[in-house]
Amino acid sequence: MKTFVTVLGASIAFFLTIAMFGLTDWDRPPLAVQQSGFRGTAMDQIHTRAGAAETKAANVAPAPADPAEPGEELAGATYENVQVLKNVSVNEFNRLMVSMTEWVSPEQGCTYCHNTENMADDSLYQKKVARRMLQMTQHINESWKDNHVGGTGVTCFTCHRGQPVPAHVWFTDPGPNRPGGFTARNNGQNLAKASVGLASLPYDTLTEYLADKTIDNNAIRVNATTALPTTKGKPIQDAEKTYGLMIHMSEGLGVNCTFCHNTRAISNWSQSTPQRTTAWHGIRMVRDINGNYLEPLTSTFPTARLGVLGDVPKVNCTTCHNGQSKPLNGASMIEAYPELAKSTETASAADPVPADPAPADPAPTPAPQ
């Protein structure tokens, strides 16, 4: 009887195996492979063609508005309470306002920021925030052109994508409420958070690495540059935080580690791709945006728009990139809107002014990550 059962079980397993291989489609999906490093180093970005097409379709830039008619009248002389775009012609000003409505509040319209009975009124907080965001956009396109955004630049649509609040903003994550005691301490780990790819890593690395504009430039770097230790080094907790940030950057750009690093020598700048330098500056650009433009707006936002700890919504890599190495498929955003390419007017004395409006860090040659 035992022999019969054994033979029967083996026969069933055999036929199930045949059925599994014969009836199931085991074909590998078509892949889209892009080499990002030297040949033979396996530095490739690999996606399914279907996934790449889906991401591309989800990141289509809108067509620019028709060019404005020539005109000499300036917005600052024609309209009341124009602070940022004073030196832009009336026609260019109106064209940009229409475009901003389509980029940010297509459903709400002009009334999202303006009291239409008195367009000069500043009673709506959205208008105050929008004014500061205009300055931020000009600052990014002017001060970060050479080191990060390049000639493509950014507009409001780069982050907003037709929504008043960008889909990918973040707040400081306080974690779950836990009772006191040694056993309750989890070192900010072991919670499934998308910010670290659902991994068992510290789930709030963004606050430390992307919100603090005064952070030490060596804070993220944990890889040694020598075969034997020459200093005390850093604890494993720092390495876990760094890895959590790297996961965020990889997922935000839809790439793997080899997009920036040669994984045989992670810390070696000479063996890294040019994208690593761009990313190095991108980290500092995000800190600049969060620290000099968003944090000062804490008192401007209503309580309902703040996080549970009272902090403002902030940006990270995903806010602009949305799963692509080049936001919006690399479309040139600033060419059709030159008024956003550089500062057109200094903010009023009542508005917060960045403490350090231009990036002060030199390019890494080599430099700490």
TrEMBL record:
Q: Does the keyword Cell membrane apply?
A: no
State any GO CC term.
plasma membrane light-harvesting complex
UniProt-listed CDD domains: CytoC_RC
Segments for region (Disordered): 336-369
A single MF term (Gene Ontology): electron transfer activity
Q: Where does the chain bind heme 3?
A: M246, C257, C260, H261
What are the Pro residues biased-composition ranges? 354-369
Changes after translation = Binds 4 heme groups per subunit.
Q: Which residues does heme 2 bind?
A: M133, C156, C159, H160
Q: Which residues bind heme 1?
A: M97, C110, C113, H114
Q: Key word Iron present in the record?
A: yes
Please give one Pfam family short name: CytoC_RC
Entry binding sites for heme 4: H148, C317, C320, H321
Keyword annotations for this protein?
Electron transport, Heme, Iron, Metal-binding, Photosynthesis, Reaction center, Transport
Entry's Gene Ontology BP terms: photosynthesis, light reaction
Function of the molecule: The reaction center of purple bacteria contains a tightly bound cytochrome molecule which re-reduces the photo oxidized primary electron donor.
Official protein name in the record: Photosynthetic reaction center cytochrome c subunit
Origin organism is Methylobacterium bullatum
Ranked from the top, the taxonomy reads: Bacteria, Pseudomonadati, Pseudomonadota, Alphaproteobacteria, Hyphomicrobiales
